[in-house]
Amino acid sequence: MSPRVKGILIGLVGTTFWASTGIFISYLLKHYPLQPLTLAFWRDLIIALSLLLILRFAQPQVLKIAPRDVPFFLVYGFFGLAIFNGLWTFSVKFNGAAVATVLAYSSPAFTVLLARPILGEPFTAGKIAAVILSLAGCVFVAKAYAPETWQVNPVGVAVGLGTGFAFAFYSLAGRWSSKRFASAWTVTAYGFLFAALGLLLTQNGDTLFTLGRQWSGWGILVILAIGPSLAGFGLYTLSLRYLQASVASLIAALEPVLTAIMAIFLLGESLIAAQWLGAGLILLAILLAQSGDAAKFCE
Q: Any alpha helices (H) in the chain, and if so which ranges?
């Protein structure tokens, strides 16, 4: 199996896990007294502590980092993860879920633009076409094609685009870290630890323990953290060792498609024709990104 194929498969599996997190989060926010940033804090902290414990017994050597690595994790965890989670929450508040989803998946555009000067990744016609198709696909999947859906204010748009930029930063930093750290799980563990520390700044005594003794809520939160969240973020970071950041971010754009498909089987929802069209456009975008050049893809 070539490194590219291996990276694609890892990215697809990771994105599939990722997609299921939306269902868990939606259920927790709807049925338990949790604020979005509080949920994000506990999820990130549980991911970090669980992975650190697993690595302590399974691969203790990968837990060793040098003092010079701390600034990287401060930036990676705080800006790449904590700020992404925070901006996403406020984007949904300002823009609504549909527009927030589309703006968040502007991240492939930012990743393609920044990957060349930062990582030296090629800037090709295929990638440009892939970004356009991916954005169009997200519009259809999120059902954000109605003009009235886009009655948003400049602040909302700025926050939404900031979500996309933060995720692009996370992807680029993850790709860069593959050359510095031997294990992707090292990056994931410490990244989430510092993200939790960043999100702790948004909490106080009244918000941290709103779940109280609702043990079923804590149980679902733990399952969310050590199941789909850990697998999703960990495997996505691992895929960056085999794929360019711009390609990996386009694969991640499949998340809303996979979430919608899961909702069919788990929540009894259905997809309309426009959403299936959007799913097809995102798949085509991934194929174009893999081709490296649009002309070559069409041969």
A: 3-31, 36-58, 70-75, 83-95, 97-104, 107-119, 125-141, 154-177, 184-200, 205-208, 215-224, 230-239, 245-252, 255-266, 273-291, 294-298
Distance (Å, whole) CA 73 – CA 181? 12
Between CA 253 and CA 283 the distance in angstroms is 9
For residue 45, give the 3-state DSSP assignment.
Answer: helix
| Pairwise CA distance, residues 250 & 109, whole Å | 9
Residue 184 has pLDDT above 70, yes or no: yes
Residue 298 pLDDT: 35
Determine the pLDDT at residue 218. 95
pLDDT reported for residue 216: 94
Q: What is the DSSP letter of 62?
A: G
Alpha carbons within 13 A on the beta-carbon side of 62: 20
User: pLDDT (tens digit, 9 = 90+) per residue, 244-264?
Assistant: 888 888 888 888 788 777 777
- Give the chain's mean pLDDT: 84
Asked whether 129 and 246 are in contact (CB, 8 A), the reply is: no
Write down the pLDDT at residue 25: 83
Residue type, 238: L
d(CA 227, CA 53): 15
The Cα–Cα gap between 71 and 266 comes to 42
Please give the Cα distance from 12 to 6 (Å, whole number).
10
How much is the pLDDT for 291?
Answer: 61
- Going by pLDDT thresholds of 50, 70 and 90, the confidence category of residue 224 is very high
Integer angstrom CA distances of residue 42 from 20, 134, 226, 241: 18, 31, 11, 28
Residue owning tokens 């990744």: 121
Within a 10 A sphere around the Cβ of 42, how many other Cβ atoms?
23
